[in-house]
Fold:
Amino acid sequence: RRVRAHWWATKDGDLDCIDMYLRHYSAYHYADQRERELFVGPGDKLVLRTERAEAVFVWRKFVDDCIDQRTGRKQEGVNCAVFRNESEHLSSSLIRQADAIADETWTDRRHYTYVDSKKVASKNPGYCFLAAGWKRAGVTKGGLHVLERVSP
Structure:
């Protein structure tokens, strides 16, 4: 059975994606209330959105300063910087499709993200990533849960 792809590649300045980002718990709001022109940050990036902009997914490949508590090293791989789904599509399905796109874009096989369990309204923070085949990979010094997907 063929699965319909839901993601469209777009630019960092996509206004619909900025609106979605501003509703994400990790959104940074400027103290002077200026409007955003970009929202992803520096580095190699890929911004994905659904056709009607009801979901956004951002991949970033950059030097990440967050330390892996297990190894004492910086996080490596491609980072899911933002994922927000307000669509009818199953989040785990959207994540699997975004994984496939990232696999085609970068040779790195590790995908990772951070989840702030204090800011997520869920008894199982990151569950949609876990349902997409990701695994728990520790906790940062700041208390963020690290989730990862390592290709077989």
User: Anything to note?
Assistant: The first strand starts at residue 8 and ends at 10. The two ends are 23 Å apart (CA to CA). Strands lie at 8-10, 44-49, 55-61, 78-85, 110-115, 135-139, 145-150.
